[in-house]
Amino acid sequence: MTEQNHSLPHADPDADSYDPAASSLAGQVDPAVMAELLSIRSSIDNIDATLVFLLAERFKATQKVGFLKAAHQLPAGDPGRETAQIARLRHLAAEAHLDPAFAEKFLNFIIGEVIRHHEAIAEDHQAAARDAAGGGAAARAAGSPGPSVAADA
Questions:
Q1: Which residues neighbour 67 within 8 Å (Cβ) at sequence distance 6 or greater?
Q2: Beta carbons of 58 and 110 less than 8 angstroms apart
Q3: Residue-wise pLDDT tens digits, 58-96
Q4: Coil/strand/helix, residue 20
Q5: 5-28: burial string, b at 16+ Cβ within 10 Å, e else
Q6: Helix, strand, coil proportions of the chain in percent (round to 5)?
Q7: How far is CA 46 from CA 40, 63, 137, in A?
Q8: How far apart, in whole angstroms, are the C-alpha atoms of residue 148 and residue 32?
Q9: What pLDDT, in 10s, does the model give residues 115-134?
């Protein structure tokens, strides 16, 4: 039986139905080899779970950046920051004996998602500001003072 890391919360109720011993190789290889394979795969499963939670934390932080940028009408992307981050991660990847080109592709994918999220946050922020301005103008036109809403609130 392989050891599983159950300290991480399950985001998916179907995750409990995951069979860590699932393999198309079962019954085709020496049981000792299969046991070693399953042990290594258990570590991979733990690393994959950690990566998912790390990415979730990273996106929580970048979401805060997106709200800050939207509130101050800053662009979704920051090419200078992105270039510096890519160079930094390529260097770290080389030090870690990971293909720097892979690290760059991975970071570019993440950056693309972050920018997409920032653009959506900015659109939502602009729509809310328009609605607030429109609602206030309509109320004033009708003779009511209407709510006082700042665009960056």
A1: 121, 125
A2: yes
A3: 999 999 999 999 999 999 999 999 999 999 999 999 999
A4: coil
A5: eeeeeeeeeeeeeeeeeeeeeeee
A6: 70, 0, 30
A7: 10, 26, 55
A8: 72
A9: 999 999 999 999 999 999 88
Whole-number pLDDT of residue 105? 98
Report the phi/psi class of residue 45: left, alpha or beta, with left for phi > 0 and alpha for psi in -120 to 50: alpha
pTM higher than 0.90: no
Q: Which amino acid is at 107?
A: L
Q: Tokens 């159950």 correspond to what residue?
A: 6
Burial string for 117-153 (b: 16+ CB within 10 Å, else e) reads bbbebbeebeeebeebeeebeeeeeeeeeeeeeeeee
Give the model's pLDDT for residue 13: 56
Q: CA-to-CA distance for 106 and 102, rounded, in angstroms? A: 6
Instruction: Judge whether 72 and 66 are in contact, CB under 8 Å.
Output: no
